[in-house]
Design goal:
By secondary structure, the chain is mainly beta. Helices cover about 10% and strands about 45% of the residues.
Amino acid sequence: MDYLDPQKRRTHRTRLLIGYGLTALVVALGTVILVYDAYGYGITRGGNIIQNGLLFVDSRPSGAKIYLNGKYQDSQTSSRLIMPASAYQLTLKKDGYRDWSRRFNLAEHSISRYVYPLLVPSQLKPQVEKKYSGSPGLVTQTPSRQFLLVGQPRAANGGFIFDEFDLGDLKKEPTPRVLPNNLLTADKQGGDQLVDIEWSTDNRHVLLRHDFLGGNEFIVFDRSDPPSSFNINQMFKLSPTLVNLRNKKIDQVYIYLSSGGSLQVGDTRDGQLAKPFLQGVLAYKPFGSSLLSYITAEDAPAGQLIGRIWENGQDYKLNQFPRGELYLLDAAQFQGHWYYLAGSSGSNRVAIYKDPLNYLKDPTVEVAAPLAALRISGGQKASFSTNTRFIGIQASDRMAVYDLENKDTYAYQTKSSMAGLVRWMDGHRLLGLSGGTSAIYDYDGTNFQTLVPTTMPSSAFFDRNYERFLSLGMPGPDGTVELQATYMLAGSDLPK
């Protein structure tokens, strides 16, 4: 028997050890290959070792062909591509749509995501939803982007009437919403108008400012039950300079008086007005119910201003910057962190701070260091994108944008035809007017696209899925103005 033969036992043992060794070698080699593959290493057909990166590409609508440096990748959106680290020109093409393109660098062992491209139809075809006898008044949209209020042209000595459109079902007739006349002061003097300040998160109430000859007043308008609307000035028997909703709800409001710079809270449930909790405020921006940032000249050196943060009755100095005619002030949360900025049009750079309260509350530190700074002078407006990933500052035809996710900064000049201030359309695009036409472009200034002619300063209002937008057309020869709906879809993507 073999197991009794010492020679055969040694041979068998040797074979087992060799087998185990070869198996271990194969496992080790496979592990090394998998690790290097996971780190982006690859081998070309010529035997050269290359380092790869991972690229994710998507678009709205999907089904666009993916080109890199002009070469079709045999893939359509959405796709995952493993590519050698290099500089690329990414282009998306789809029949019936304009091309989308962007240059980028794919680093070794890295992941690049371009999942935000919006394809614009080659031909946009506006359809008339309603024709008005003249230019409508205020046009404003709920935060959910489901309802649009369009102010009807006012008759002589007439009141304010809105047409409420359901953007989810434009086949419905618009619902008239009438602002009660007893809430208005001097509404029949002529020249008065409504301006939207902010919407409540309930998508039902909107804070309006009524401007008239000799002054203004603030009104909370209930679009679902207009008779329940109320006048802030009448309720608290004062004439505030500015009013804001506290925590985006209507039960309490911040009331600001520029004379003395006082800021106080009014309770709309019982009409009680609390004593001012801040003085010397030049500008402010509330967040939630117990947090706000503000700008003041108190305790500031000559020619300087101070940005401060107020939280639950505690006050902290954020930064100091030169005086200017316009104030830049905003804050938002992104990926669990708070980001702040405070500056003025007199600054040539605006600092961005990450979680500054963590340092300002620490008695051993008490100073917040900036995360980054946007170099731009004469800033007119600062704002976060709707997904709060980007911070944009506009100064006339110049833009500076900071990407909080990738820590990148973009500075560029907008198209010369762009008029006025732009606003964020969504998380990655800005929207404005260009030569009497609505226009959009990406956060980095690329992919500038004109849409349709319009007279509306806000350019266009999109539905929830960004598949259709409403805008006001150019006045006709008889002075009539059409409210138009335009699909951002083409061909087979259009609803059946």
